[in-house]
From TrEMBL, chain A:
Record protein name field: Aspartate carbamoyltransferase
Entry EC number(s): 2.1.3.2
NCBIfam families per record: asp_carb_tr, PRK00856.1
Domain of life of the native organism: Bacteria
Residues reported in the UniProt entry to bind L-aspartate: K87, R170, R224
Any Gene Ontology biological process: amino acid metabolic process
MF-aspect GO terms: amino acid binding; aspartate carbamoyltransferase activity
Domain spans labelled Aspartate/ornithine carbamoyltransferase carbamoyl-P binding: 8-150
Domain Aspartate/ornithine carbamoyltransferase Asp/Orn-binding: 157-302
Keyword field contains Transferase: yes
Similarity comment: family membership: Belongs to the aspartate/ornithine carbamoyltransferase superfamily. ATCase family.
Assembly and binders: Heterododecamer (2C3:3R2) of six catalytic PyrB chains organized as two trimers (C3), and six regulatory PyrI chains organized as three dimers (R2).
Catalytic activity, reaction form: carbamoyl phosphate + L-aspartate = N-carbamoyl-L-aspartate + phosphate + H(+)
Automatic annotation (TrEMBL), chain B:
GO molecular function terms attached to this record: uracil phosphoribosyltransferase activity
Keywords: Glycosyltransferase, Transferase
Uppermost EC category: transferase
InterPro entries: PRTase-like, PRTase_dom, PyrR_bifunctional
Entry's EC annotation: 2.4.2.9
Protein name: Bifunctional pyr operon transcriptional regulator/uracil phosphoribosyltransferase PyrR
Start and end residues of each Phosphoribosyltransferase domain: 6-158
Length: 308, 179
C-alpha cells in the first residue's frame, strides 16, 4: 500500500493501521532529510498551505510551519486573534476566503470539537486537524507513537500509560486510538474527576494509583492539566494533584525497570513532572519535538500527493 | 506481452568490467571520486562496480552512496499514485569531489535531472559524471547524456527495459519487454 486511505487527516479514528505504517515509513525518509546540512526538498513547490489557528499554539504551529517550508510549500499563517473572525465572520466564510486565494491545504486548530470534520464537508481543500477542542490531535499522537517506535523498536505489545487530565485532553484520545490501532496496551491514570465516564469502552484500563501504573508500563505519557478548559474545580489543589499524580525522580528510581517518559508539551515543571525527570536520560520529550517535524512532513507529503 | 533477452549474465559481466576499467582510467585511485547509485535500481549497478573495483582491480577505498530522488521528482501529483520513497544513504559530503551518478537505465533523463537537484543537498561537487548500464537512444526529454554507457538500445515507447540482478531478482539478465 502506497497511498493513504483518507484525503484529510481529521483524527486517528479515521485511519487504518496501514496508513500509520505508511506515515512512519515516509517520516523515516524525512528524518534523514532534516538531519542533512541542507534540510529542504522541493516536492511541494506548487502547493500552498494555510495554517489557521483559532487557539494558541507554539510547538504545533512552528512544527507545521517548518515541515511545510522544508517541503518547499508556500505558507500562509493566520491567527484568529488578529483577524476578521473577531468582526463576526463565520468559519466557512473565513476559510473560503482564504481558499479563493488558491490555497490547497488547510492546517487548522480550533476550540470546538469536530471543527475540522465540519470544514472538510464544506470546503474544497485537504484539511489537517491540528487539534479540535477536547476531541483529537492526530499529528501529536502520530509523533508520540513514532517516538515510541524509534526508542523501543516497536509499538505493538508495549504497555503505555497516559497520566493526567484525560477528560479534557485531545492528545489522550488520539493517543488511545493510535496505540490501540497498533496493538499496544493502554492504561489511563489520573484523578477520578478527570476520567471520562465511558473511557473503558475504548478498550483501555483505568488505574488510579500512579505507582502501580508506572510499575506496569514501558512508557508513561505525562499530560498537562488543561487549566484553560477546567470550568469547575476538579481537584482540591495543584499541590495535592502533584503529590498523587506527579512523577519525580525518587519515584522513577524506585521502579525496578527503566521506563520511557514522554510529554506532549507545554510542561508545567513541578506539577505533572519535576525538572529532573523532564531532563533525565529516560525522557524523550525533545526527541518528540524533532520527530514532530518529520512526521508532519510525511502527513503533508502524503495528503498533498492526493490533491489533483 | 512478449519479451526478449537483451543481455545475458555473461554479457552483463563483460560490460561491467569494461565500465569499471573506464572508471579506473579516469579516476585512478578514487581518492577524490565518489560513486552514487540512484535508488531504487541504480544501487545494484553501483554495488557491482564497486565490488569489481575493490576486489579485482585492487582499489584501496571507494566512497559509495545511495541517493533517493523521490522528493525531487518533477512528476509529484501528476501520476495516479503517491510516489514512494526509498532510503538515501550518503555518509560523506560531495563538496569538491568528482561524483559519478550511476543508474541502470537512462530513458527520458528526468530521473537524472532530479538526481542532480538532490545532489545539491550534499554539497557542491567539483564535477558530475553519469554512468548508465542501458542507454535508450532517441527518447530523451532533456539534454542529458551519459559519460559511460554499457549498451545503447533503440526501444520504442511501449517497450520496457527490465534489468534484473541475482541479489534481488534471482538472476543477472536484461529483458526488452513489449507492453
Amino acid at each position: 500500500m502506497s497511498e493513504l486511505s483518507v484525503n484529510h487527516l481529521l483524527g486517528i479514528k479515521y485511519l487504518k493501521e496501514s496508513d500509520i505504517q505508511l506515515i512512519f515509513e515516509t517520516a523515516d525518509h524525512f528524518k534523514e532529510v532534516i538531519n542533512r546540512s541542507i534540510k529542504k526538498v522541493p516536492s511541494l513547490r506548487d502547493i500552498t498551505i494555510a495554517n489557521i489557528f483559532f487557539e494558541n499554539s507554539t510547538r504545533t504551529k512552528l512544527s507545521f510551519e517548518l515541515a511545510e517550508k522544508r517541503l518547499s510549500a508556500d505558507v500562509l499563517n493566520f491567527s484568529a486573534s488578529q483577524s476578521s473572525v473577531k468582526k463576526g465572520e463565520t468559519l466557512i466564510d473565513t476559510v473560503n476566503n482564504i481558499l479563493s486565494m488558491k490555497v490547497d491545504m488547510v492546517v487548522m486548530r480550533h476550540p470546538n470539537p469536530g471543527a475540522g470534520i465540519f470544514l472538510a464537508k464544506h470546503v474544497k481543500a485537504s484539511i489537517i486537524n491540528a487539534g479540535d477542542g477536547a476531541h483529537e490531535h492526530p499529528t501529536q499522537a502520530l509523533l508520540d507513537s513514532y517516538s515510541i517506535r524509534e526508542k523501543l523498536g516497536d509499538v505493538v505489545g508495549k504497555n503505555v500509560v497516559i497520566v493526567g487530565d484525560i477528560l479534557h485532553s485531545r492528545v489522550a484520545l488520539s493517543n488511545i486510538f493510535a496505540l490501540k490501532l497498533q496493538g499496544a496496551n493502554v492504561k489511563v491514570c489520573g484523578p477520578k474527576t478527570l476520567m471520562p465516564k465511558y473511557i473503558e469502552s475504548l478498550g483501555v484500563g483505568v488505574e488510579m494509583d500512579l505507582r502501580r501504573a508506572l510499575e506496569w508500563c514501558d512508557v508513561a505519557n505525562m499530560l498537562r492539566i488543561q487549566n484553560e478548559r477546567l470550568d469547575i474545580s476538579y481537584f482540591p489543589t495543584t499541590r495535592e494533584y502533584t503529590q498523587q499524580f506527579g512523577v519525580n525522580k525518587k519515584l522513577l528510581d524506585s521502579l525496578d525497570k527503566e521506563i520511557v517518559i514522554m510529554h506532549p508539551g507545554p510542561i508545567n515543571r513541578g506539577v505533572e513532572i519535576t525538572s529532573d525527570v523532564a531532563d533525565s536520560k529516560q525522557s524523550i520529550i525533545l526527541n518528540q519535538v524533532e520527530n514532530g517535524v518529520a512526521v508532519r512532513m510525511a502527513v503533508i507529503y502524503l495528503l498533498a500527493s492526493k490533491i489533483k | 506481452m512478449g519479451q526478449k533477452v537483451l543481455l545475458s549474465k555473461k554479457e552483463i559481466n563483460i560490460i561491467l568490467h569494461r565500465l569499471a576499467c573506464q572508471l579506473l582510467e579516469n579516476h585512478e585511485d578514487f581518492k577524490n571520486t565518489v560513486l552514487i547509485g540512484i535508488q531504487p535500481r541504480g544501487i545494484y549497478v553501483a554495488q557491482r562496480l564497486t565490488k569489481i573495483l575493490l576486489e579485482e582491480y585492487k582499489v584501496k577505498h571507494i566512497d559509495l552512496g545511495f541517493l533517493d530522488i523521490t522528493f525531487y521528482r518533477d512528476d509529484f501529483r501528476r501520476g495516479e499514485k503517491t510516489l514512494e520513497a526509498t532510503k538515501t544513504k550518503i555518509n560523506f559530503l560531495v563538496e569538491d569531489k568528482k561524483v559519478v551518478l550511476i543508474d541502470d537505465v537512462l530513458y527520458t533523463g528526468r530521473s537524472i535531472n532530479a538526481a542532480l537537484t538532490a545532489l545539491q543537498s550534499f554539497g557542491r561537487p567539483k564535477e558530475v559524471e553519469l554512468l548508465t548500464l542501458i542507454d535508450r537512444r532517441f527518447s530523451r526529454h532533456l539534454p542529458i547524456q551519459p559519460n559511460y554507457r554499457g549498451r545503447q538500445v533503440d526501444a520504442i515507447d511501449n517497450e520496457k527495459v527490465k534489468v534484473m540482478w541475482e541479489e534481488n531478482d534471482g538472476e543477472d539478465i536484461i529483458y526488452l519487454i513489449n507492453r
